[in-house]
Design brief:
heterodimer, A: mainly alpha, B: alpha/beta, Rossmann fold, Alpha-Beta Plaits, 2 domains, four-stranded antiparallel sheet, 12 helices, 35% helix, binds adenosine-5'-triphosphate, binds magnesium ion, ABC2_TM (chain A), ABC-2 type transporter transmembrane domain-containing protein (chain A), Nod_factor_ABC_transporter (chain A)
Chain lengths: 252, 336
């Protein structure tokens, strides 16, 4: 059920003209951003790292806008009520949606790397290709589960967009997708350590550059994600009930 | 299996909404204020009422989308608040309009997704989906994206979706809205067939003829409470002792309508626009012949056909609803 759901939601998402336009433009911008940031820093050797980081930013944006936006869209389409009406635990109904958004986000990663190669000649030589191939999907699934936790708040809030927008950049920064965590003020450390995005980003970067062992980071990422999933599932059940009491499943 | 498909006792629902952010203003709408009803297994039950009467809210209370503020309800013997999943397994919900579907997916993918959600076994899915496309006459268009569908086709797809898991209770909220007359007739046939094979149907509609033709029993709801309940024949008694005069006219003013309303023996008077003409309907006590007086009041207005007839279900409905309005808005009633 989760597989079919994720597949069909991916289909639905990837056919939106808005999404397609965003998906075409954003990776180019991100690749460019990454390249110039690091050129300015005078570290051309780390271009690949930058491109991978930019790609991860794309995945995260997709998950965030996805779990917020997809829930909001479904509210507009009137499908939110219909899927919540299914005799299933609400978390199981929403998980495919967030997974689908992570999947569409994967494309952002691939596209950013491709454009980076094409426009700026970033060499795509991964230190550990196998680990990279595992870390990316692992990271994406982790993000999808994290998305569920986010989504549970979106089901309740009729005005989810505001929250989505405020969450995008801080998480990019704090989880060190673009700038190394060590460059951030100390108080962000604990926050970063609790976010699965941090560990996912680290695993992917390690796989790309060979700067450290991949598996521990990926393991921590997945463990935190699973905790998010469990928490998200509990939240979702609670939130679904609240939403039925507050009548926020429908628009009017 | 429980004796009744649907039981509701003292069902209430208040919507609370807040507007304004800095200085929030609370607004409360009592959409449903004490609904009691029971619907037997296999019954086709109609819910009629003016806009905003609380029909949709009542349906959403029964189908677990909303939690009642007070009162309780059971569907197939399961409590709608505590045994949500048991209820959901057994019900289908179809609402009117063109929302509620994934536009960018094909009709088949839409059904496949919901079949999956409702736990229709994989082996059976294909057959069931084909069967339903047949039933709602969408065979041949299964693989088209829903965004290219017409209003009526979407509506039919909606119905197919609602039937995927063979629900024993079906909630239909204005299913015939925006459906052409031929398709509406087919739809009525489908609903009648479902009821004949034992599905309980709770239907809301604004088309009196539809309710009259389909429903075994009808509840008229207004202002959040049931105003009248019975078979169509029983409801027609609310217009007993009345007769109806219909006058085709061109240019009846408010003053004239008020004057007709004030004539002795006149109970209701209303004007509906039918193309270029107006249709003036006057309900009066059967013993009083108001025709001459009405026509005198309309002096100077160009008139068409004048007919006197027996009251229909629609007239009874108008009588019931206007009685409620007269009770709740006494000032306006005097002025009108
Ligand atoms: N989500 C909501 N928040 C606040 N008020 C609501 C909400 N939904 C409905 N209402 C109000 O509750 C009342 C009953 O609405 P409901 O939709 O049940 O009417 P209805 O009988 O289905 O009308 P219609 O024939 O137009 O479909 C209306 O006054 C409506 O404005
Ligand atoms: Mg309604």
């Amino acid at each position: 059920m989760i597989a079919v759901g994720a597949l069909l939601h991916t289909k639905q998402l990837s056919r939106s003209p808005f999404e397609i336009a965003t998906a075409l433009i954003v990776p180019v911008v991100q690749a460019t951003l990454a390249v110039y940031l690091f050129r300015a820093g005078g570290e051309p050797g780390r271009l690949l790292e930058a491109a991978v980081g930019a790609g991860l930013m794309g995945v995260w944006s997709s998950v965030l806008f996805g779990s917020g936006g997809a829930i909001q869209n479904q509210r507009w389409q009137g499908t939110l009520e219909m899927i919540m009406l299914a005799p299933r635990p609400p978390a199981l109904v929403v998980l495919p949606i967030t997974l689908a958004t992570a999947l569409t986000g994967t494309y952002a990663m691939v596209a950013t790397l491709a454009w980076g190669r094409l426009l700026y000649g970033i060499p795509l030589t991964f230190a550990d290709p196998l680990a990279f191939a595992v870390a990316v999907p692992g990271c994406i699934i982790g993000l999808g589960m994290f998305g569920l936790l986010l989504a549970s708040t979106f089901v309740l809030l009729r005005n989810a967009n505001a929250l989505t927008n405020t969450l995008e950049y801080p998480i990019w920064l704090v989880s060190g997708m673009l700038v190394p965590i060590t460059a951030l003020p100390g108080w962000t450390g604990p926050i970063a350590a609790a976010l699965p995005t941090t560990w996912g980003a680290r695993a992917v970067r390690e796989a790309a550059t060979g700067s450290g062992p991949v598996w521990p980071s990926l393991g921590v990422c997945l463990a935190i994600s699973l905790a998010c999933l469990a928490l998200g599932a509990i939240m979702m059940t609670h939130v679904e009930r609240r939403a039925r009491a507050a009548a926020t499943l429908a628009l009017a | 299996m429980s004796e009744y498909a649907i039981e509701a006792a003292g069902l209430r629902r208040t919507y609370r909404s807040r507007t304004g952010w800095l200085r929030p203003q609370r607004r409360e709408v009592e959409a449903v204020r004490g609904v009691d009803l029971t619907v037997g297994n296999g019954e086709l039950f109609g819910l009629l009422g003016p806009n905003g009467a609380g029909k949709t809210t009542t349906i959403k209370l029964l189908n677990t989308l909303l939690i009642p503020t007070a009162g309780e309800a059971r569907v197939c013997g399961f409590d709608v608040v505590r045994q949500t999943r048991e209820v959901r397994r057994r019900i289908g919900y179809v609402f009117g309009g063109d929302r509620g579907l994934y536009d960018r997916l094909s009709a088949r993918d839409n059904l496949r997704y919901f079949a999956e959600l409702y736990g229709v076994p994989g082996r059976e899915q294909k057959r069931r989906i084909a069967e339903l496309f047949e039933l709602v006459r969408l065979t041949g268009r299964e693989n088209d994206r829903v965004e290219g569908y017409s209003r009526g086709m979407r509506q039919r797809l909606h119905i197919a979706r609602g039937l995927l898991h063979r629900p024993s209770v079906l909630f239909l909220d204005e299913p015939s809205i925006g459906v052409d007359p031929v398709a509406a007739r087919e739809l009525r046939q489908t609903v009648a067939d479902l009821a004949a094979t034992g599905t309980t149907v709770l239907l809301t509609t604004h088309y009196m003829a539809e309710a009259d033709e389909l429903c075994g029993r009808i509840a008229v709801i207004a202002n959040g409470t049931i105003q009248a309940l019975g078979t169509p024949a029983e409801l027609r008694h609310h217009a007993d002792g009345r007769q109806v005069l219909e006058v085709e006219a061109y240019g009846v003013g408010d003053a004239q309508l008020a004057a007709i309303h004030a004539l002795p023996g006149v109970r209701e008077a209303s004007v509906t626009v039918a193309g270029a003409a107006q249709l003036l309907g006057v309900q009066s006590d059967a013993g009083v012949d108001v025709q001459a007086e009405v026509l005198r009041t309309l002096d100077g207005v160009r008139l068409g056909r004048v007919t006197a007839r027996q009251p229909t279900l629609e007239d009874a409905y108008v009588a019931i609803v206007n009685r409620v309005n007269a009770q709740t808005r006494p000032v306006e009633a005097v002025a009108g």
